[in-house]
Amino acid sequence: MRYQISGKQIDIGEALQTHVKTELGEAVQKYAERPTDANVIFSKSGHEFVCETTVHLSTGLTASAKAHATDIYGSFDSCAAKMEKQLRRYKRRLKDHHRERAQPVELFGASSYILASESDSDAQEPETLQPMIIAEMQTKIATLSVGEAVMQMEISGTPVVVFRKDGQEGVNVVYRRDDGNIGWIDPS
Predict the structure, then answer these.
(1) pTM for this one?
(2) Which end of the chain is less congested by CB atoms within 10 angstroms, N or C?
């Protein structure tokens, strides 16, 4: 597994990097058969350290966790425990989907845009109805089953997953509704 361990305006020493690789490696190997890479970012928020971890799995799913603590090792240990709990909770489902899927998840490219919010305009009337684009990035959209998309949304903690349904051309969306249920948009 490839590791990318970095800090936002924090020096990350060799001892912490070794601790992260050892502990995260053990936790992920126990519950995920073939993780591909892990991204761990440390930052400071007030008096607390924040650890954000994202692990990409060979099944195409992405698990992420975030934790706060007063010391940097504690923030990582708490984050690793959350990651382990997520993967343990979905181990059976991950293995079932892995057996069904003989090939890795197919990805296709798409453009992702960040638009200016209305609060940035200082309550003036816009000159046009076209939103102002702040940034443009490339992203990947996975080809998944609906069950895999829901699992991806739950594991990654995101409110929305855009995916291409197996065997179909159009783009589908699963999202967390305000009532706690999950919505699925499947265009005809």
Answers:
(1) 0.62
(2) C
